[in-house]
Amino acid sequence: MNSKNYYNPKGEDILDEKIYGGSPTGFVDFNRSKYQWDSNIYDSMNANTWFPSEVNTSTEKKNFNQLTDNEQAIYKMTFAQLSFNDSAQEEYLSDFRRLTNNRLVKSVLSLQIMQEVNHSKSYAVLLDACGNSDEVFNLYKYDDALNTKNQKIADQFASYIDGGSVDKMLLSAMASVNLEGIYFLLGFSYIYLLGDKVPGARDMIKFIARDELNTHLPLFSNIFKTIQKENKIQTNTIDSAYKMIDDAVKIELEYGKYLLHRYPIMGTTEELMEQTVYNYANDRLKKIGLDPIFTEAPTTYLQKLVTKHLEMNDVKSNFFESNVSNYAKSSINLDDF
What we know:
Elements: H1 37-47, H2 60-65, H3 69-99, H4 103-130, H5 133-137, H6 144-158, H7 166-183, H8 185-194, H9 199-230, H10 235-262, H11 270-287, H12 301-308
Helix pairs in contact: 1-4, 1-9, 3-4, 3-6, 3-7, 3-8, 4-9, 6-7, 6-10, 7-9, 7-10, 7-11, 8-9, 8-12, 10-11
């Protein structure tokens, strides 16, 4: 077994380190950023670090018990799926980081790993307060649709994470764009639709959504564009990226429509779900420098609901614990392209 080279004084200069391939010296120097978006995203992530204890969950059980049967089912099924997303992402990021060459990008990935673990802790805190933690975390054993969505997401993550080529690295990054930009969004919408009925869940999701959409999605959008820019990516690889997001849209809508048919969701329709997910997918394609391919619709109510809760500094302080749970607004540019 070859030992890892932690220090290579003859390695390439920090400003020459690509995301994939090469031989880094071993130094992390935030004063010499090749891309700039990497250090900007790191600063934004770090400035907005938060913890589950900052969200008031003292009345979550009482509030949950006052929901209708359908609302309780949506609550449980949503958190069962979202909790898997963050668990899978934390494991995937560890593998993706191992394959990454640029040390500053690796540092940003390290911080994201911490945040994904923090999200998992958030679900545990919330569901423990609600009194149904074991039930929710084990729902995949009893619900075929939930298990199927989880498996398809896991399979997409696993498809290209072997480090065999730069093309595989690009498609592996695409899997993360899908996770951060597609698989969370309907789930966020469901909790926002419940809104003031479950303020603990709503506020916890606000923080998680802001992490995912304000920093994690920009990180992997920039990683995708940078890998494509730095290497001669084959046309068939870009075609595969399109196929991956098309699959992601189908996976998200399949699960969303299943929930809708089984547990009707407050004014939500199949058409509204489709328009929302298609719009999100087109936006994600634009963010990674590709042309949109889905039918475009006017901004939907569900999109506006998610966007509204991305606004900064609108989470009230936790009166019971005296913690300020504001999410600081960053003025830095997270996109260098």
